[in-house]
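A reminder from the course coordinator: this example appears on the midterm review sheet, so study it carefully.

Given structure:
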């Protein structure tokens, strides 16, 4: 099993496991990796043999201590690269994910730590995702999903969980970027869409979009 393939599996398992607190099912993992379930099953068996995961076909998969350590290292590389591409090279937040997918496999901790230092050792990437520090520790926040917000309360947008170009361009179109202040006016009972204001403009956000937006109380 190639090292790049191992890293892709471990990072994806980590991202799907809510910081390794939830067991990941094969179907969900296969969908995220865009692979056939049978291929994923074989891959997980190999990772189990390498002591990177605990795998049971009827139960699911979770990372071992060594698997989680490697996954966090990969996540750190990915998010540092995304931050560097945006802040130092001028890429848009909708452009950097796929580039970072390639750069994250450059295994050089000295390089990553130097990049982090240049950036001021950020704790969040351009999408609001937390960046593990050099020891794998992650800053814990009190952020919530926009879908969990309360009416008549002001919030600041802190991140997104959907990094697709289409979604990020949609948010930019409505100025719903990281750091933007919004006021949740009301929830639509019929479809849970949200009426909010941003820059004095009223915007209706679908429940699907609200699930992918991370906010904190202003």
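Designed residues:
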């Amino acid at each position: 099993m190639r090292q790049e393939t191992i890293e892709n599996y471990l990072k994806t398992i980590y991202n799907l496991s809510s910081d390794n607190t939830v067991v990941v099912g094969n179907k969900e993992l296969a969908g995220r990796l865009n692979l056939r379930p049978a291929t994923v099953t074989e891959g997980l068996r190999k990772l189990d043999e390498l002591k990177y995961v605990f795998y049971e076909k009827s139960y699911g998969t979770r990372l071992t201590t060594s698997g989680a350590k490697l996954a966090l290292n990969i996540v750190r590389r990915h998010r540092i690269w995304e931050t560097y591409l945006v802040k130092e090279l001028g890429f848009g937040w909708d452009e950097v994910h796929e580039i970072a997918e390639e750069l994250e496999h450059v295994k050089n901790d000295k390089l990553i730590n130097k990049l982090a230092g240049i950036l001021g050792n950020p704790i969040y990437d351009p999408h609001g995702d937390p960046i593990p520090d050099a020891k794998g520790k992650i800053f814990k926040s009190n952020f919530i999903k926009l879908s969990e917000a309360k009416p008549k309360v002001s919030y600041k947008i802190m991140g997104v969980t959907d990094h697709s170009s289409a979604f990020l361009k949609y948010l930019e179109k409505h100025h719903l970027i990281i750091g933007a202040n919004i006021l949740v006016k009301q929830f639509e009972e019929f479809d849970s869409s949200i009426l909010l204001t941003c820059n004095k403009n009223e915007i209706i956000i679908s429940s699907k979009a609200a699930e992918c937006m991370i906010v904190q109380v202003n």
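The chain is about 40% helix and 20% strand. Residues 192 and 207 are 5 Å apart (CA to CA).
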